[in-house]
Amino acid sequence: MIELTTARLESYLQAAFGKDARLHDYGDLASLDKQGMKRFGYGKPVLLRYEVNGRPHEGVLSVMRGDKYGHQFYWDRAAVLMFQFETSARMPRHVRPMGLGYVDAEGNLCPVHGPQEFFILNEKLQGYDYFHDLQRIRSEGLQEQDQELTRGLARWLADVHAQKHADVHLYFRRVRELVGASECIMGLVDEAYPHPYAEYPEARFEALEHKVLEWRWKLKRYAHRLSAVHGDLHPWNVLVDGKGDFSILDRSRGEWGEPAGDLASMAINYLLMGLYDRPCLQGDFERLYQTWFSTYLEVSGDEQALEVIAPFFVFRALVVASPEWYPDHPLQVRKGLFRFMENILEEERFDWEHINRYME
């Protein structure tokens, strides 16, 4: 809830419309009764009467109600309000938006002027992409420091996932997004592959989607697993210093989710690198993969992740097999990833210790 005062409202009006803006009155939309307006929140719009350069105006100040339909977080609601601000005036007879803003941590109302795009400024970290280590391993062989780095990453991830959150509807949302979001399974099927695509005909895509929908209903039984997650953990989002230390970049897709998604996101890259040299996972990358899973499961104790991980592997396999995003893969690499993502959906529990069963 937001504490409204005359000073805060007038400060907003002057920041939005100029120093000559003056607030005359405000209150409940129907009666201008301020008694109910001391705290302003979701579903409680406020009528403002003010002037700009001597001309009278009226406006309705409102925020969007948070709900379980994909609006749990303020950034969800911000996207809706930005859409309304940008497009409403272009529709005949639609109410015209007069201002867009946000409330800061001190309760001040801050205008956003003419937004066109947003940006973020992050700190600069030292290091290089973890992917370069994987390339080195392929050409020069595995070193003990590589194993130790993988153990460190797995321990860190298990610690992140140890933070739990009780919100059944948010877990359902994350599963819906996994299946149907434009960045996830159905979006990748539509946009990350040409159609028709000789190496994976549409009949196989259709069968894959049907199977994933079956898994969506299975995952509904696992809402108690909602945990803190990264959301996009892969070798291009990990910076390493060559001495065993690492930093993480680009947390994505929400603060909470299914921890098996992060587990699959990194693991698929060990499979990808291994497929460059063999039709199954053997040698150095099999050892890294085994280290990744064994360490994570030992620290987290989360054997249940193996019951839900399959559709998350499908998502990540679709990413790294995409001819649009990874145009240089040899054909045998893509075929190996396709075999894996189809076969893994056929079992109720992922047999991580015998991954090559899914490569046949």
From TrEMBL:
Family annotation (InterPro entries): Aminoglycoside_PTrfase, Kinase-like_dom_sf
Endpoints of the signal sequence: none
UniProt keyword Acyltransferase present: no
One MF annotation (Gene Ontology) recorded for this entry: transferase activity
Cited Pfam families: APH
Highest taxon above the source species: Bacteria
Database matches in SUPFAM superfamilies: Protein kinase-like (PK-like)
UniProt cross-references to Gene3D superfamilies, sorted A to Z: 3.90.1200.10
Keywords: Transferase
Keyword Transferase: yes
Domain Aminoglycoside phosphotransferase residues, every copy: 139-270
Name of the protein in question: Phosphotransferase enzyme family protein
